[in-house]
Design brief:
- By secondary structure, the protein is α/β, with parallel strands linked by helices.
- Helices cover about 35% and strands about 20% of the residues.
- The chain has 12 helices and 17 strands.
- It has a 7-stranded mixed beta sheet, with helices on both faces. It has a 4-stranded parallel beta sheet with strand order 9-10-8-15, with helices on both faces.
- The longest helix has 22 residues.
- About 0% of the residues have low confidence.
Amino acid sequence: MIIGILNSGGDCPGINAVIEGYVAAAYSRGWRVIGFHDGFEGLLPVDGGRRYEVLNLNKTHKIRSIGGTILGTTNTGNFNVHMNKVGRYSISPDIMAKAKKTITALGLQALTVIGGGGSAKTAKLLSEEGLPVISIPKTINNDLCSASDYTFGFQSAVEVVSESIDRIRTTANAHQRIMVIEVMGDLSGWIALHSGISSSADVVLIPEIEFDLQNVVDCVKQRKATGQREIIVVVAEGCRLNGDIITIHNKDKGDERLGGIGNRLCHLLEEMTGIETRYCVLGHTQRGGSPCAFDRILGVRFGVEAVKLIERKEFGTSVVLKGPKVGTVSIDEAVAKPRFVQPDSQIVQTARDLGIIFGDCPPKPAATAAAETAPAQAPAKATKCKKKSKA
């Protein structure tokens, strides 16, 4: 068999691990693998050369520890998926015809697509054209598919953010500052939540839980009153501030993307608390560098499983992780519903019990020495804070 593989959209740690697992499993079956350069653009002919290569074991052996992707990628180009007048996603018929021609000319019997939500939609359209396609979910945001517990790249991003916050904490402590750390996540709060718990943040703000800035200010003042020198606030880039999502505009390129809430919060917190405040946008450091052990292992597992799906001719499907097992769902199911943090989930409750503030509730009064030595009394009836979701 001759099979192909490409990765599209943003890069993330673990893509090369998928490629290595895919090629190793294919060659163990006596198959041949063609890798396409720069995402779906590799399917289109180019003047003066080709945009693909044969991937053999020598090319891919031990690349699982390398970040980025040996095939290159893009989140722009000719394969942008558009919504047509009847509410269906579509690609230019001319572009689709050229892609099909390339696949036919190379004799591909299957094509595996590693990518995020947009790439999965493109893979779905190729599948609907009768092409034998397998999808592998990829995003550091961990929000792509509600059917998968994790996507590779997420754990690596959490480790980068956690280590960065540990470093930021030491300088915050030295100067008794508030530090606001803005992290990626698109419209989900997975990275902020996990890294906030890992790094003992005081405040974690995520898109799925609407926050009141005054609650954050009260938390800061309360903890400062107890003698705490530094305050760590982790905020996801997709959070709303007074109902608005903060974006960065690049008028020259006609580009608009999430970002800037860390800067806004920094100035507001300093103004409202009177405490020196700084912010740090970790940006693409979260997507760069070598994948952690978890993502290396998950990546090769996804790559091997994709080959097994091809062997069983289960096309139009996506690889997912459910519990400890790698399984499959249809590409339709994979792209149907994003995966958001549930405000009443166990991990959010764990964070609350650790004392992390999400800004939706006023902080509980700090315990005093007198209260700690007072005779025990019957506990007051528990009250629950109303939590809102913006997901």
